[in-house]
Task: structure prediction
Amino acid sequence: WEVERLVFRVPLDDGAPVPDAVTRRQSCSTAIAALAWVPHCAFAFDVSVGAATGDVLYPASLVGEWRCERVLTAVEGDQTAAEGAWRALGGGTTPFVAGRAETYETRFVAPAAAATYRFEGRDVAGVVLDRAFELGKRRGAGGRGAVSWDPRAPSILRDGDATLTVVSRTSEISEAGFGFDELVRVDAAAGGLIGGAARVSRLVRCKRRFRRAFAKDGRRVVEGLEIVKTYRV
Amino acid sequence: PTSSAKSTLRFERP
Result:
């Protein structure tokens, strides 16, 4: 198996104070019991895991608005899962077809709490992606409701009745380039045959890597590669 | 993973 993240949260809620050592032993035996229940070709994911702290930091020079051209270049594996992830992360209702290009506005803003990175030997204040602005612009008129994002809780993005929560994150910023790797839990109405008030949680990993470049006419641009993977939950 | 999708991104100043 390719297990990239395995989380167990073990409730010990009988109310009695439990010494640490006993808690660990009980957690361990419960975890082993849970593992025995994991079906083949699947891994357990605790959907109650909270949001990751902090946010992805971008170079200060990115502050302000940009026009982003995005091209879907390749899809492998389960097409339905890939399309679901793509729609959940902002793809909207437009056709999910390799080779398709879309253009939307995006912007970078100062984070709620200043954060710095090292650049040419100095500490420089970085900026963050305005996730609500980008999602709203990308969805355009086809949006499924209000998009909201609080820069003080940057790992949570609400999109109509769906919530995207970054549950784990790594990011880097250096003179060679910058980027991130985020594991995102998508909570949304089940729809389809389940319907009603039922909710489902899906797990999507989104990695982006950027580098600075120049357009043919010499203008500065930023080029990026994105890889989105889905996982059985 | 059950699926993977690759995209290219390009940011230009409007």
